[in-house]
Amino acid sequence: MEKCAGSPSAGGSYPQKNAEILSSQYGINLFLAGLLLTFAWAVHAVGISKSHLLSYLITLMLIQLLWMLWYLCRSCTQRRLIRDKDTHAGARWLKCGITLFAVITLILDSFKIGYYIDFSNCLSPTEGIFPVTHAVHTILQVYFLWCHAKDVIQSFKTLERFGVIHSVFTNLLLWTNGVLTESKHQLNEHKERLITLGFGNITIVLDDHAPQCNCTTTTLCSIFSQGIYYLYPFNIEYHILASTMLYVLWKNIGRKVEHHQQHKTPFKFHGITVGMIFGLIVLTSTIAIVVVYLIQIGRSKIKSELALTMFYLHAIFVLALMCTAGIVALLIYRLEDRSLDNSKNPARKLDAELLVGTAAGSWLLSWGSILAIICAQAHPKYTWYNLPYSILVIIEKYIQNLFIIESIHREQDKVNDDIKTLRIVTISRGSTLSLTPSYKEIYNGRAAHDSGEVPCLFKGSICGRENGGAKEETSQENSSVMHSTSDFSFYSRNSVTNKRRVLKNIAAFLFLCNLSLWIPPAFGCRPEYDNGLEEIVFGFEPWIIVVNLAMPFSIFYRMHSAASLFEVNCKT
């Protein structure tokens, strides 16, 4: 009988599991084809031009647009139906973040359109079609994510799996294209700066993809060409955020959602003043360091060395503060006795996997720098600061990942702590057990509802008067219990409140620190390029390949950590 009962369930899930496997393989092949096309363009492969790559990306975006329009139209016709929602997916702050990045991406597209108009005589038409298609794609995709990121799709599941996974890998390819374009620009600037640091033995060959014709308006061309590369970091973050939100939507297809009350977690500035102040100091100083670094690096050997030394000292100080804050938070968690939420949650699982996975990018660069310092024959003075910096990067990510992952898995209190304490203390006084309602009844205000009585715990004097002198002793005893309970409850409440205030300040401080550490690599402040020691030990081309592969993950880690810490701050 058990086999017969289980068989339909197994048979019903088998086609959907096949659909999941088939759709994932379709997406991977779609991505690999685009990745090889991108690589072929990057290395100037024979017969492959930028127009071929852009045509492929345009086709993928158009297919995704058709699927999103079909899904939106079908949703409008079925808007009266009650649908399951994943309350953990597509948080409002995440939607606001992706909207901000999307707006800046639209500005980037407008710059590309202007750049194409100025160089239209020698550029392929695809370079004009691509930003227009990308702008439409961005607008519709943000609207789609705002309206449907929480959906748990239960109809047309096989078709929807292919549509969603196509959207995931389309965004990943657009992210790859943005990373490669921005990395090539950074590499060209790095090659020009290496000579000033005294590394003349490195061959300087610029990878130039500039159009071979004159601009119609020189001033506008300069604004467009320079402005594009300052906007790419936001475009890169937009596509990786979109792909993660779509991936959660894909994992939720056909899922059975547990219906339970979702606790709202609004963000409040109250109680996090200290963390915000210290975080803003770090953010302001980081922006100043980046500005000075970009001005000084490459001007002369002395100025470049001073810029690198300044960067390392500032980063060492910030990372040490972050390690200390993370350790304090973990110690507070060890003192608390709260269970972990192990329920199935695709969004939370993806957050944890991304934290550890993308941290590997920074760890790879840090271990490369440590090995270079150990093996190098000559050590300029500024390179020694790289050793504590690299070690702290590794340790800080270990500690921060532990803090964030434990924070997002901790259960929220379902009942006020004071009421639990009140119940425990009152029960411990055996003489008042019969007079005290349960804390659920106190919380809901329904104590003695059926009999119409007023709980004597709160109205001891009234009960005493109504029931005569025989109750006065009980009333006085209840009064004394209330005093002792209030004292104990007040102490417990203050202890819990103080711990949570410290945790919220730590989360706010780490949030701003991660935003601060996102800024330098995202806007061209990359000592891994400019240090020069790693290129000598590993060779120029091998180390540049390692940096270009690892840096995008390192940059994404900081933004993803900031988003996770914002959620932790709201939840604490």
Tell me about this structure.
The protein has 17 helices and no strands. With 572 residues, it is mainly alpha-helical. The chain has two domains: 15-256, no CATH class; 268-412 and 495-571, no CATH class. The two termini are 48 Å apart. Mean pLDDT is 77; it is low at 1-12 and 414-472.
Question: What brief labels describe this structure?
Answer:
2 domains, 17 helices, mainly alpha, disordered N terminus, transport, globular
| Uncertain runs | 1-12, 414-472
Helix vs. strand class: mainly alpha
Average pLDDT works out at 77
The biggest beta sheet is recorded as: none
Strand proportion: under 5%
* Tally of individual domains: 2
Run of helices and strands: HHHHHHHHHHHHHHHHH
Helix content: over 70%
Number of helices: 17
Apparent shape: globular
Distance between the termini: 48 Å
Radius of gyration: 30 Å
Number of strands: 0
GO biological process, one term: inner ear morphogenesis
Transmembrane segments: 26-47, 53-72, 93-117, 129-146, 229-250, 271-295, 311-333, 354-379, 502-524, 536-557
Protein name: OTOP1 protein
Pfam family, one: Otopetrin
Secondary structure: elements and pairs:
Blueprint: H1 2-42, H2 50-77, H3 92-118, H4 126-148, H5 157-194, H6 218-251, H7 273-296, H8 301-335, H9 346-375, H10 386-409, H11 417-428, H12 439-444, H13 460-467, H14 472-522, H15 527-530, H16 533-538, H17 540-571
